[in-house]
């Protein structure tokens, strides 16, 4: 099935219009016309070969919202016209017990990414959501119940939403807890919204005084400028959990010392250069932990989508045409977006 897409043929080439092929719908497949696709910083890293192993042509995009146009003979959970989503995974190994628990992202044999993952389909690797349509195995398709006028803002939930939801759920964030969110950006703004909706007291950390009101508007109970030593010291030894969304190398000790005994700080951002080694004493004397978390499994992602639909939670977005993707990348590198770009995939036909 021929479809229009946008992608790059080399790391030093701009994204451009491409004609690609999608496989025929198999017995367990779902075909989706893509209405919107979020723009993730990982798209930029991968298409520019800033991460190892980029396969070209590279068509990014793993925050996909659209409508079902065909289903395989063995598909019963979806029907034509359903509003659905596709996140970061489109396949995994078979028979791994963890997959039965919805934890495909931690499968020992790995998972197949929505783009740049090895596949039998031409051209030998997956091609993502900067395209008109996609064909996905049914168990990796997600049901979306948000109203139609929110669908564009739902798209980033498929990555930014689940990336922050998964650690908040795993470390059982809820009422009575004091939770810190470090960084107010594409991930951090979702962390604030979700932790607030879960009933926690939310403290947002930013390096910029200008973001104080923004964080409060997102649902933070309090905002700390992390460059202000007095503001930081006022919260020493007081957090049950801190979600650190910052993808730049920084001093982790400034935040671990804010944790209570047995508190955990979870990292979800991957810095270009390693963080300075943490102070071990600050960890062992209060049994504090530094952990990491990836995206989330399919069952967990569905749980997040249902929770967000119930609570009316979506991402804060700026819609763009696909033809403006290079400008969006340049602005994203300067953090010049509040807080996620989303492509109107109808513009692929222009």
From TrEMBL:
Alphabetically ordered keywords of this record: Metal-binding, Oxidoreductase, Zinc
Q: Where are the bilayer-spanning segments? A: none
Q: Which InterPro entries match?
A: ADH-like_C (IPR013149), ADH-like_N (IPR013154), ADH_Zn_CS (IPR002328), CAD-like (IPR047109), D-isomer_DH_CS1 (IPR029752), ER (IPR020843), GroES-like_sf (IPR011032), NAD(P)-bd_dom_sf (IPR036291)
One molecular function GO term is:
alcohol dehydrogenase (NADP+) activity
Under the heading Pfam families, the entry gives: ADH_N (PF08240), ADH_zinc_N (PF00107)
**Residue ranges constituting the Enoyl reductase (ER) domain according to the UniProt record:** 13-343
The protein's required cofactors = Zn(2+)
| Coiled coil (UniProt feature) | none
Q: Which SUPFAM superfamilies match?
A: GroES-like, NAD(P)-binding Rossmann-fold domains
Q: Which PROSITE patterns match?
A: ADH_ZINC (PS00059), D_2_HYDROXYACID_DH_1 (PS00065)
What family, per the record?
Answer: Belongs to the zinc-containing alcohol dehydrogenase family.
Protein name (Swiss-Prot/TrEMBL): NAD(P)-dependent alcohol dehydrogenase
User: What organism is recorded for this protein?
Assistant: Sphingobium yanoikuyae
